[in-house]
Amino acid sequence: MKEGISMAKENAATALANLVEIVEAEFMPFFNDTLYLLMGLLSEFFQPEYKQFRGQVIEAVTIICNAVGIENFRPVAKDVIDVLI
Hints:
Layout: H1 2-23, H2 28-44, H3 51-68, H4 70-73, H5 77-84
Helix pairs in contact: 1-3, 2-3
């Protein structure tokens, strides 16, 4: 069952990233809350069996930050970098 849950989480992260990639700056009202939620997941799911999920979340964070533009990303850049290293 854990495998199915993990796959659902991976698909959700990818779907979210794809959606934001389409709507771009229109996502800004949700950007900070969503970004910090995703970054929290990286801390919560650190076990080896979640390696693929963590990769999907990192990809989603990257896509979302790119989609909203550098000016919107700049204020949270340090927080994102700190979580990723």
